[in-house]
Amino acid sequence: MASVNFYLEKRRDEYRRIKTRNVPILMYFSYDGKRFQLNTGEKTDFENWDFEMQKIHHKVPFSAQVNTYLNSIAVEVMNLYREARQMGIQPGNSYFRENIRNRKTHSGYNFFDVYIRFIEENNEKWSLYTFRKIKTNYRHLRDFSEKSGYQVDFDRINEDFYKKYTDYFLMKGHSNSTILRNLNILKWFLNWSARKGYNKNMYYRHYKFPWDHSFKTDPANLFLGWDELMALYDIELKEQNLSEARDLFCFMCFTGLKHSQLKFLYMSSDIHNNINLQQFENREILSIPFSKYIQEILNRYNRNRTVNNILPDISNVNMNRYIKAVGRLAGINQPVKIQIYKGLEKLTREIPKYKLFSTKVARNTFIFHSLRFGMPLQNILNITGLKTLHGIRKFVNW
Predict the structure, then answer these.
(1) Listed residue (64, 69, 65) closest to 27, CA to CA
(2) Is the pTM of this model over 0.70?
(3) What was the pLDDT predicted at 329?
């Protein structure tokens, strides 16, 4: 006869008193006159434990999820025992310990140990900014696990996890955009873990964030006025990364090019009249008239540059981060109102305008000033690559 029971660990503190707070839940499997003990990885307080039913009281937060997990362990070990007997195997404790570990989706690897390995293997390739984001995400997961009692593991990344994890962020006052950013970092880690063979659970690939995570503001806050653009253009910057990001941003404002197109710029033989951009999608050459600002920016980088690399190469993520820093230094900090979402709740906040700066703002700035200076709409469409007037209309009345 085999049976499974759950008990709370009885361990004494330094004063010889039995600990009653945050103690491990242990599983005992009795079979064939033997006893197999397993630490479930879950913890609870004595006052939250139903000693008769051997589970957490139903009124305790997250109790249903933990109790379901405990039941799954009981089913697992009992199935192992039955399968062994059917195959004529006389199982022992080592048999259960080894096979329970092997049957786990994550092959016995601890989720947080693997996360640390992810950081250690990749941190030299990351910028300091990326490294900090990853470490912050790790701390969020640790804090969530400790405060909610949810044992984060590869085989428990499911709908219940995402609901509880997003609730954790909402209770901390974070907006939907912040929550989604953290979920995307987690997805990055899970993809790496899947490639390395640590994670076999692919639920995360199908999860869809259920709420609006965009922000809304007046179109006037999404482009730079001429005085603001000149403030960026003229500011003296000591840091090379900020100076280069400013030049690229202003170059996009003056030309209407996307950030992804800058790496395909090359100088034509008619260097005094045109910049040429090879459009690989349709093999057409797009010619953009010079302005004195474009010429000045190119003159800063024309020396010691190869034909296919006129301007510095900065990732879009770093561009968006650097240009915000430049906007702050340039004093473009007038308060603007934005609407954000926290769950289903719509909130209004004020932030300094430079916090909205991104490569998209550069293109919007080009559109706005091209309209202001009377450039034909078709020319704007051709230069920007926009297919319809939808992306232009919002700037017509400003």
Answers:
(1) 69
(2) no
(3) 95
